[in-house]
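Entry: C2H2-type domain-containing protein
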Amino acid sequence: MSAATVVNHPRSQLFTCLACQVVFTTAESQRVHYGTDWHRYNLKRKVAELPPVTSEVFNQKKLTRNFCLAQQAQSNDAERKASFSAECTACNKIYYSENAYANHLQSNKHKAADAKASFEGTTHTKKNVISTRITPQIPNEKQLIDKKIEVAIALDESDCLFCTQKFESFDENMRHMTKIHSFFIPEIEYLIDSHGLIKYLGEKISIGNVCLYCSKGTKSLESVRRHMVDKGHCKIAYETEEDIMEFDEFYDFTSSYPDADNDDNWVFVSDDEAENDDENDDELPKIMIYEEDMELVLPSGKRLGHRLLRRYYRQNLRPIEERDSIINRFITEYVDNSKYRQSGGILITNDHMYKHYRPHFIASREKRHQQNYDTRIGIKANKLQRHFRAQIM
């Protein structure tokens, strides 16, 4: 639409399109414009914060795109025809053109050869080879894992798990990871194979490329190290039961059992006596396990708790004072009290305290009621300020 046409019409009768920045004289032409590809293209440019294009530029882009698509289709068709290959086993011939192969199938010579081959009992096979390229075999999961293990960088127990530093000894490496990366081993007092644990963690990082804390998989050793350092995941996941069972082979919790120190009570018997004892096993009381309470009740009556609740079992609660010393301490506090001395050596009981502070309680309560009353009156009268302020008109 030309600018002159826009000027000849009143402004109130114009219909605009903000996306394309054009003006229409009728609502019907505006609705038709909203359904065009030009309008949709400008809407996408508006979302991308780009200026709109005119209809001439859009048509030129559209023609250029159609020309490129046609050229690409022609090149694909030519490539398909160039790679065509077909074999006729009845005539023992190979054709590299679709037209030549189609004409051969319609020829009388081919029909006679095909009938002869069928009569003699030979199998007729037609094979259309679209591409001569050989598809490589896809390796299975086990082969991929074996290949990754071969090319992966093996971390030694003297290599840091979170950076590229290497140390002369295992202890120096542990001190470095503890001080620099804040790495710690949970329940280290029950750890029996620290070297095996660090080696397992190194394989988990270098071969599996998995984070030790959140188990997020990455593509390389450098990326998983960067993830653990940036996220603060330089620690072992040791919260759920699955996490604890993953490292169970490196720990030994037998020393934490209540009967672990009673080794002197064990009696060693011969094999014959052991066989006789097996016959009387049915007469022994059965061990009861309560899964809900997470406790194991032994025949002796002792209760073994689950190690997930160890924080509660390790509590050292302070016993209740029932000795005479606590009573003497309370008496000393009363004697040292200033109010006790002011009262002439008479202990102030609850009745004395109530009579002494009752007037203060009453005055405080009346003051609070008065303030609440003033607030309600002020809200109703819309006068909460207590000073005069001149109204400036």
